[in-house]
Amino acid sequence: MLRSLGAVGDRWREPVFLAATGGALVGGGVAWLAGATAVADGFWMAGTAVAVVPAVVWVVAALRKGRAGVDVIAALALAGTLAVGEYLAGALIAVMLATGRALDAAAERRASRDLRALLERAPRSARRRSGDEVVVVALAEVRAGDVVVVGPGEVVPVDGRVRTGPAMLDEAALTGESTLIERGVGEAVRSGVVNAGGAVDIEATATAEDSTYAQIVRLAEQAGAQRAPVVRLAERYAAWFLPLSLAVAGAAWLISGSAVRAVAVLVVATPCPLLLAAPVAIVSGLSRAARQGVIVRDGGALERLGRARTLLLDKTGTLTTGRPRVLQVAAAPGRTPSEVLRLAASLDQMSAHVLAEAIVGEARARGLALSAPREVTEEPGRGAAGVVDGQRVRVGKTVTPLEARPGWARAADNRAALDGAAVAWLTVDDALSGAILLLDPLRHDAPRTLRRLRSAGIGRLLMLTGDRAEPAREVAAVVGLDEVRAEQLPADKVAAVRAETSRAVTVMVGDGVNDAPALSAADVGVAMGARGSTASSEAADVVLVTDRVDRLADAMEIAVRTRRIAVQSAAGGMAMSLAAMVVALLGRLPPAAGALLQEAIDVVVIVNALRAVLPRRGARPVLEPATEDLIRRFAAEHDDLADVLDAVRDAASLLAVEHGPRVLGAVREVDRLLTERLLPHEYAEEHELYPALAAPLGGGEATATMSRAHSEIDRLARRIATHVKVADTAGRLRPEQLEDLRACLYGLHSVLRLHFVQEEENYFSLAP
């Protein structure tokens, strides 16, 4: 209860201080206008006296910590005005001091960091098996060798090994990887992962206290406790401004023999530009960041972000979307990719698996009519089976050995290995009929974001991920990272963050519970809060409310600009104060006039600092609502055209192994898709989207390269159409056509993939 009352008192301390000093200044002004000068002096003296006590307390507290901050000048000026009877000057200084403190407190008050989400997620009990009986016991009672039962959706309470399997596990809490992992009998399982399949028995290999999840909680607590306190920007300038001000005041007293002149110097030396500039600019920066969907917990975090030089990022859910998407649909001879996808999605409608959700979503995006499955069963780790349109269908893993698979299936396996993709195999009436490759795609705005971060001052970009090395390196190559560290456990991430923070101000970005310790260990922790875990958001200094990584670049640019404005305001204010000190030294500026001049300087400083709340000119293109609608429309069309790209690639692959009627049919289908769907899309982009983007992007040159790509796409499409006409005339593909036709198909596929990615990165990422 006392602690709660103390917190309330702390919250209202600065507002009460400001109200008291402001009321004294206004009350004295009213009395002075009424001719009651003695009453006015009484008000102003009271306001000055009210400020002297906390000013002295702050000075003593700073001296105990080995710092002589700028508050020393304020305390001396307040005491000096009381000593020489310059009460109005004292009251003005008191108001300025109280205003600075109130603004500083407002910037810092939003700080809150706890590990509630980590602790709430941790299991408190376990179901221990004893023979045929299952008993619920406190988690602390579980010992190594005990067998615990983990039901569907439950968190594995202790480290152990699978006793009855296979176990389908969601390990995102530890690795950040969204794909479910299958663990067979005897394989190790770490605490903190979620059972995504049926109930399994786990033989404990450690107690709860020694298990992985408990270590994550301890790491986060230790990392948070080791954070250095925030040092106010003003105090960095006090090292030279304080002794200089005292020297000038002493010189004024020695030269003139007048204490009033020394007080006048201290009045204009009162570091209100230092006390006001940084808090005003930082509060303005916090407000600006919030408008962009970025919540910064305190002013210290914003100031540190503005000085950051190293950025560490998680992969899954940060640089990638965290949601698997269909990369390619491969079909056996006699079947089409659309048919394979439709059958698989029809069955997977009944599954809650993350890959099944992606398959169904892709089929619906392509407008495929799904059938209602019957007799559906699902085996964790193996996939789903059922009857679709009278056919026995299975989607998931295949039991066909690699060496016994046909050529098309081995090609799909090869591509999955190269791209780091998962494969869902389609079996129809016990015959391998298709394969669906799924991949967690890179965010469209990731490459642009990292380029903007480098422009904002980040010199080193490093990925820390629990994922495998191959997909991690591929993502890093696309976005241009300096270093990749894969298969990282939470402890590894914390160690890497600490190593980087010892060299430069470091930012860590993540979205999972496994990232919370690393976020706490960094100078600035950034959480992808829109879909990330509560634990990562609680452990972070900065939370991106929207599911867009480009908001990180917005936050960085706002922080850099805010810090620059704060420094500019403080330096400019000090320069004007130094000039006023010289005038006071010469006896041309009495204390009251000096206080009013200092007020004018403060107004200039505050107005300049308030610029931080405004957007930087040219920070991002301003799009009309109609242009944003066009971007969304063409982005959706890109998704719809995925099957066209598949058809082009499949026809090229087929042409490499045979030249008969089936190949000619595939090429005819490609020509139809290009004519009816792809080319109209490219034409509409050229004549609707690109003109709309020209003005916000600074002219037609911004889209000139993409227009050239449209010309190349059109050229290749017309060349393929010519091949079809020649083949139709001859009734078959001529031998002399094969090489050029194959080159056209592979070339078109490559150009389209690159062109789509460039448009998505450069144009589609501009729209909310």
TrEMBL record:
Its EC number is 3.6.3.3. Keywords: ATP-binding, Cell membrane, Hydrolase, Membrane, Metal-binding, Nucleotide-binding, Translocase, Transmembrane, Transmembrane helix. Residues 122-221 form the P-type ATPase A domain. This is Cadmium-translocating P-type ATPase. One of its GO terms (molecular function) is ATPase-coupled monoatomic cation transmembrane transporter activity. Pfam families: E1-E2_ATPase (PF00122), Hemerythrin (PF01814), Hydrolase (PF00702). It comes from Microbispora catharanthi. GO terms for cellular component: plasma membrane. Gene3D superfamilies: Calcium-transporting ATPase, cytoplasmic domain N, Calcium-transporting ATPase, cytoplasmic transduction domain A, HAD superfamily/HAD-like, nmb1532 protein domain like. It is found in: Cell membrane. The keyword Membrane applies. The lineage of its organism: Bacteria, Bacillati, Actinomycetota, Actinomycetes, Streptosporangiales. The chain crosses the membrane at residues 16-35, 42-61, 73-100, 237-256, 262-283, 565-586. InterPro entries: ATPase_P-typ_cyto_dom_N, ATPase_P-typ_P_site, ATPase_P-typ_TM_dom_sf, ATPase_P-typ_transduc_dom_A_sf, ATPase_P-type_domA, Cation_Transport_ATPase_IB, HAD-like_sf, HAD_sf. Signal peptide: none annotated. It is a multi-pass membrane protein. It is an enzyme of class 3 (hydrolase).
